[in-house]
UniProtKB/TrEMBL annotation:
Residues 6-219 form the ABC transporter domain. PANTHER family: ALIPHATIC SULFONATES IMPORT ATP-BINDING PROTEIN SSUB, TAURINE IMPORT ATP-BINDING PROTEIN-RELATED. This is ATP-binding cassette domain-containing protein. GO terms for molecular function: ATP binding. It comes from the Bacteria. Pfam families: ABC_tran. InterPro entries: AAA+_ATPase, ABC_transporter-like_ATP-bd, ABC_transporter-like_CS, ABC_transporter_ATP-bind, P-loop_NTPase. The keyword Magnesium does not apply. Keywords: ATP-binding, Cell membrane, Membrane, Nucleotide-binding, Translocase, Transport. It comes from Schleiferilactobacillus harbinensis.
Amino acid sequence: MTEPLVTLQNLEKRYGHSMAIHDVSLQLYPGEAVALVGMSGGGKSTIMRLIAGLEKPTGGRLTYQDPAPVMRVMYQDDRLLPWLTVQDNVGFGQHGQWVTDLLAAVGLSEAAEQYPAQLSGGQRQRLALARALLAKPQLLLLDEPLGALDALTRRKMQDLIMRICAERHLSSLLITHDVQEAARMADWIIVVKDGTNVYQTAGAKGQEAATVAKVGEDVLRVILDEQVRA
Ligand SMILES: Nc1ncnc2c1ncn2[C@@H]1O[C@H](COP(=O)(O)OP(=O)(O)OP(=O)(O)O)[C@@H](O)[C@H]1O
């Protein structure tokens, strides 16, 4: 049986007297795409920061596959270095075949010598994705990375991320406020509410638009506490 990359058991994080998350249990398996959705302040980013090792839990258990998976985070603000060219933002001065391949994979070969300020929002996010891929991660942590993009560019980025994850057998954990995006991209959707995971359902990754739409609608109803259609 395949071992999970990451396992959370009754995970808890407090900030002083304030409980950010509690009783969060979930497993991330190799190659799987999981989406965390829910109202603002529910605890999604806290869960991701704990998994990324950026903060320590105050309770419960957080365990990783041995050896620990390489993880990289991608944020909405792309955190590019404006004084470096596109290829240097990816390779930090190394111009090996791997950097060339990464730029080609995200469709930025032509822009290798340009600077971030010369790129469109979609190109900047593609560059941020290439940079996240440099370390050959097994798990991509996607903290609402597409939130600032227009609908068409966003759709293309969704497809690019899905294609790259499939080709490289990468797992992903996506935080999104867009339930349709979650339905479209995820194998599993987890609803986080008041600091804990309250609901899990299959996503509709790779399925037809009508199925994606229904899954997204149903998840929205769960978030809004409305009854889910049979
Ligand atoms: N560094 C911190 N110090 C104190 N409280 C925090 C800290 N980080 C998060 N919290 C609290 O923990 C709770 C969960 O926040 P979190 O950012 O994880 O939610 P979220 O679901 O990611 O929200 P959003 O969708 O708005 O990003 C909130 O009540 C928040 O105020």
